Amino acid sequence: MKSILIKTLSVGIVFSAVSIAPETEAKAQSWSGKASYYSGRGRTASGGRIGVRTAAHRSLPFGTRVVVTNLSNGRSTVVTINDRGPFVRGRIIDVSHGAAGDLGMRGRGVAPVRISTL
C-alpha cells in the first residue's frame, strides 16, 4: 500500500513541475501598398476623433502604432490606428491630414508606402 501511495505522489510532483512558457511578444509585421489620406471632424470607427497622426486600417487592432514610410521620398511618420478603411482596392492605409503632411503626400493624394507595426 505504501508503494502505491509513493508512486502517486511522485507522479503528482512531476505534473506540478511542468511550467507554461511565457507568451512571446508579437513580432513586427510590415506591408507595402498605397496610402491615401483623409480629414474630417466626425467620429472614427473606434469612437474617437481623427487626430494629427491617426490612420485607418482594415484589420489592425485599434491602438496599434505603425510606422508609415513614403517609398517615393523616404519620409516616415508614426500613426495610431483608430479607424477602419481604406475601402479602395490596392490601398492599405488611410492616414490623417497631418500624417500626410509628414509623409509629403498631400499634393498627390496617394503614395506608395511601407507600413510596419511597432
Automatic annotation (TrEMBL):
This is Endolytic peptidoglycan transglycosylase RlpA. Belongs to the RlpA family. Lytic transglycosylase with a strong preference for naked glycan strands that lack stem peptides. One of its GO terms (biological process) is cell wall organization. Keywords: Cell wall biogenesis/degradation, Lipoprotein, Lyase. Residues 32-115 form the RlpA-like protein double-psi beta-barrel domain. InterPro entries: RlpA, RlpA-like_DPBB, RlpA-like_sf, RplA. GO terms for molecular function: lytic endotransglycosylase activity. Its EC number is 4.2.2.-.
